Structures are given as structure tokens and as C-alpha cells.
Amino acid sequence: METVTFGTAIVRIYGRSNGKWEVKWREAGRGRSTTKTNKEEALAVAKAQARKLDGASGKQWVTAGEADLLKKVKALAGERSPFMWLDKVEEAINASGGLSELHEAANSYALARAKEFVSRSFADLYDRLEDEYRSHRRSETWKTIRTELKPFRDEIGSLLVESISPENVAEWCGRGNPSPRTYNNRRSIWGTALGRARDLGWINLHARTAAEISPKRREAKKSPTVWSPQNGRQILALLREKHPDLVAYFALQCWGGLRPSEAQDIEWRDIGEPSGYIHVRHEVAGKLSAERFAPIQSNLKAILESLPDIENRHSEGRSVYHRRRDIARLATFPAPLNAATRLAEAVIASGVVNKWPNDVCRHSFCTYRLASTKAIGAVAEEAGNSEAVIRNNYRKPVPKEMGEEWFEIL
């Protein structure tokens, strides 16, 4: 059977057992046919009948084979013009000396690209990342990456990085039936690791990584956890009474918008200079390493000015050794060492809250700052993030009055 189309008309040709050819079509709701002695005559009749049935002008008839060919050319051309694509193919064939020569050139290019990367094991990649993050990047970020990758380094460390497939990533990220958000967070870590392998030339430099190919899971829209104004007052009172060395660290996040790592590493010389701003230098700035100036809110200024002298700024129960170490550090930095862990443990132990959500202080700052100002661009600049990230990940809808109440806490 062969099919001839013209516009919307369809005519089919069938070979019969007696060697003749039958032409069939439908007209006015009824089947029609005619018989010809050879295929060429039948094809000519089919084309004429299809043109007649369509009743149009300016169109061209095509056989089913020609239609398939056109469809394939369009698919290969993609978003480009099929004519432009064919011109490029013709140029390539002419430049290489023929179709067989072009095929050989393509194979040679593919082999050269395959040799661009050096085979390395996953253990090599893990060790390289650990060295880089500990030496040159953010130790806090490395903790998150290590939690995800370390079990695999111990279990499949000898696996070549180039052998990791999208199916592997999907299986590893889906262990334990996680929520879509947890799954996507794991996938993001694998994307970071494999992206670094690509930068190093350990996998194909010109292809997407297995993590990039493996699709994300759809997440339900969920607002971040933030402290209530009551929580803020309770935690601040607790720290002033029992852990005064942690007050500045807590306040710089809640009312200055600093990341935990930034509040840990920033120095006193960068707070208030220039007057009225927190200068977050690029070497202190978090993920984006982008320098910024965050305005010091009036309540934050009052909280910092009310801190006790350094000699008296220590937590209850600290050993003599730790007190001396803290005093030496607090002369330069607002936060003592290991402030993040100590703060979460102290607040949970007090019973004010039973859990310390990730980035809760920074989420609180962005939420209440946006509620009180309605200026997402300014909040994004102060927090060192894009407007999209603030809107999608850091903001919880709250009334303006609650935002104003947050920045009145002293």
C-alpha cells in the first residue's frame, strides 16, 4: 500500500494479486475506487484525484515516504530552519570531500572529545572537594555536602566518576523515600560534586552531568519556618542572661540578615563602618561571595551597644580555657568559635523551642523586613540574594504590623 496526500485529501494505492493496482479514496461519504494496469498509472491517478478532492491551489502532493522524510529532516533541524540546516550539511559534505569523509571526521572528533577527560574515582572527587572546601571555600557548606556524599565515598569510592548515571543519582537521592524537597536538596549536592568533576576534566566537558539529566521532583509550595516576635524576645533574654557571648551572633542574623557563616566570620571593624552599615566583605560573604553593605537597624544597634564588657561576656559553665579563648576571639569577632552549634543547643535545652530549623534566623529577617518595607529589591540587596530566592525560599507572608514588631525587639 502507498498513500498520496494533497492538503487534507488522502488517496491510497493497493497492489492486487493479479498484478494490477487499485486506487481508493472517499468522496461524499462513500468509498470510491478505480483500477490501473501498473503502479505508475495508479500513482498518477491518485495524485490527480487527491488534488481534485482537496479543491485547493498552491499546494503540493507528497507520498507517505516523502512525508516521513520531511518529518525526519525537520526533527534533525530542531528549532533551526530545515533549509538552513540542509545548507550546513551540504557545506560540511563539500568541505570534507564527501559523505564518507564527513562521517570519518565526526568519529575522529567524538574520540578526541572522549579523551579530554581523565578517569578518576568517586573517592578522588570526594577528597578533592574536601580539600577545596576546607582550604578555600566554606566549611559550613562542606558539612552539608559531606553528610550526603561521605557514605557513598566509603561504599563505592572505587567507582569511576564517568560511570555515574542519571539512574544512579535518582536511586541514591531517593533512598529512604524522602520528601520532594529532601530529594531535590540531595540532587543539588550531587550536581555540585559532578559539576566540579566536569570543571576538572574528569568527565565530558561538553555534556550535562548525571545530576543535571536526572529530573527534579515537584515540591509543594511551603513557607519557611520563622521565629515569632515572642520567640525572638525569649531567645534574646535567655542569651543575655546565660550566654552573652552568643547575643551578637544571634542578633546579626535575626536583625542584620547575615548568614550563620557570615555572622561567625565577620569582624567588629566591619560593623558600623561606614557609619550605619554592616560591611560584608567578599571573603566573608556566603554562597555567592559577593560584597555588600547591610544597614544596621535601630534595634540591632541598641542590642550590640548593650553587650557587656568582653571579660564578662561568657556563657555559664565555660571552663577557664574556653573563657580565655573566647575573650581573645571576641576582641576581634562578634561570635565565639562553634557559635552555631552552641546557640542551637542552648536554646533547645532551655525549652524555648524544641527544634532549631535551618536558616531560621535569616528567614525571620527576610520575612519581617519584607513585611515592614514591601521593598523586595532592597531586602534582596541587604540579604545578598536574588529577588526570586527571597520570594520563593525566604519569605513567609505575615502582616506589616508583625514585621514592625520584630524590628522593635530590644
TrEMBL record:
- Keywords, sorted A to Z: DNA recombination, DNA-binding
- Locate the Tyr recombinase domain: which residues? 222-407
InterPro entries associated with the record: DNA_brk_join_enz (IPR011010), Integrase-like_cat_sf (IPR013762), Integrase_catalytic (IPR002104), Integrase_recombinase_N (IPR010998)
What's the protein here called? Tyr recombinase domain-containing protein
Taxonomic path: Bacteria, Pseudomonadati, Verrucomicrobiota, Verrucomicrobiia, Verrucomicrobiales
